[in-house]
Amino acid sequence: MEVPAVGEEANQGTRSSSPCLYGAARIFPRRKMSLYFGVAPQVSTNRRTGRAAAATGTVSSRPLPLPGRPAFCVVWGPTMLVTAYLAFIGLLASCLGLELSRCRAKPPGRACSNPSFIRFQLDFYQVYFLALAADWLQAPYLYKLYQHYYFLEGQIAILYVCGLASTVLFGLVASSLVDWLGRKKSCVLFSLTYSLCCLTKLSQDYFVLLVGRALGGLSTALLFSAFEAWYIHEHVERHDFPAEWIPATFARAAFWNHVLAIVAGVAAEAVASWMGLGPVAPFVAAIPLLALAGALALRNWGENYDRQRAFSRTCAGGLRCLLSDRRVLLLGTIQALFESVIFIFVFLWTPVLDPHGAPLGIVFSSFMAASLLGSSLYRIATSKRYHLQPMHLLSLAVLIVVFSLFMLTFSTSPGQESPVESFIAFLLIELACGLYFPSMSFLRRKVIPETEQAGVLNWFRVPLHLLACLGLLVLHDSDRKTGTRNMFSICSAVMVMALLAVVGLFTVVRHDAELRVPSPTGEPYAPEL
């Protein structure tokens, strides 16, 4: 059944997803079924709840408002618009100031003066950074794209759940797949699968979008396994550079990853909003970057393989390590609780801020600038001047997120929304992430044996993604306004549990000298954690 154009954002085709997708699985209520059969539903607002309701087969002559947004809503609120740009400029200036002062104070390292090493790094960076840029370019407008296709929040939640499930399933076997297929071929495969994922965003068919989310999960697993594995093997085995230079390469990559994310947010805002090309434009713009990354890997990289370890042995060894060391168990608990909340935050920030006229690309760049600021503060805090320990900063990161989530439970109250306060809370969460990830990376490196890290991290990911999926499914049939506020309340309780786990880890490792940053003077560092 074809439907004539309705308003400026009418359906650009027909939807023909199989009824078994929601009939057999029982994941969508009947009133949402019209979205799957090529019928442009009339979106109205329920007087009692404020939710968008779909009337099957009814075509309106007026432009359709977005789901959950009243027709009289002001799309571009000047307050939120100005706040987002001012926050972005302020955070960017702070990051630039800290990084410039760090560069002036730090003498050039031995590795930086080796021409062969620099050429090898550049060969790696040009492919890896293109892949990261393509990944970040899609982030600001993913939720907005699904909303642009008139899917309701519950349906969008299912798409996110599909992506998370795909990530955890492919993540479990990614290392074995990369070792078997070859690291170079795996990087090229990443370019192909992620390009296909972007192409699926051109379709409004729900089943095609689900397939795209599955491809995105596979691509994410390859992005965070194949590239690093290729580099480490080439660094040590083929070029015989000192292993001590590897952390310097990935530390620089982590910094430029933040920079690429900031630039990608601005670029996404430019193509989607400033040029008026719509929310699908960033996904189309990512395809040439992915194609170039794959072509450069084919031309400049050599192939390498590694001896495969049985997946069952990897998981069994990881489980033994997890259960035999209380420090590992507590670290896994903190990671699962903290990062599951971050996944839910990634889903919720757009529907919280977008109705108030927030420029999504600039907001995303502000988030990434806040995260970069947190990483810079981590380096300053662990420097010889302050010499704080990663355990201190991990505790601070969890406390900041707890405070931010409590802010969000009030700033998202139905009828009393405060988008500026919500935006500030989101920035604090990203700042905390900038402190959390290097702290957690340091502690994992010290606590988990290198031979068991792959298996242990696989076990860490399972509860992490299960908790995130459960949170998104809770949102599926809840009221949009109260459901968002209730979800932030649940996330607050989860982060309080993470804080208790941090306290438990603190009591276990407070006398453990192995988990301290070495004293810059070379003398034993006496104070306790």
Automatic annotation (TrEMBL):
Coiled coil (residue ranges): none
CDD domains: MFS_MFSD5_like (cd17487)
Segments traversing the membrane: 75-101, 155-174, 210-232, 253-274, 280-298, 328-349, 361-381, 393-411, 423-443, 455-475, 487-509
Main location class: membrane
Compartment(s) of residence: Cell membrane
GO biological process: monoatomic ion transport; response to food; response to starvation
Highest taxon, organism lineage: Eukaryota
GO CC field: plasma membrane
Membrane-related topology note: Multi-pass membrane protein
Family note: Belongs to the major facilitator superfamily.
Role played: Mediates high-affinity intracellular uptake of the rare oligo-element molybdenum.
Name used for this protein in its record: Molybdate-anion transporter
Gene name as annotated: MFSD5
